[in-house]
Design brief:
Shape: globular
Radius of gyration: 13 Å
Largest sheet: 7 strands, mixed
Oligomer: single chain
Strand content: over 45%
Number of strands: 13
Helix content: under 10%
Amino acid sequence: QVQLAESGGGSVQPGESLRLSCRVSGYPYTAHCMGWFRQAPGKQREGVASIDTSGRDTYYADSVKGRFTISQDNTPKTLYLQMDNLKPEDTAMYYCAAKKTPICALGGRPHPDYDDWGQGTQVTVSS
């Protein structure tokens, strides 16, 4: 019932920036964590960034620390991913996700198991 709709993807050159948005609507349960994941063709899905919905804690994959920033607006509920200094290896389909249980990290990184997912938005970084 939780609906997630991503937008903001596109094609950019290395070093440029993009800002992804995820509109959140419908709440059959309380989502304690929100996150961004990505998956490239032939690769496994990986957690990029997550945030405790209280806004107190954030977690990032090592590969994006210092370049990506996750944030949110509470009313209306919207999740963002600011991506700066993009690299070719960032090319992937990016997904917004919500998690029921209040464990937003695993080993200091975004927790891999989420309950609801958006349809994805494509990010392509190439020269």
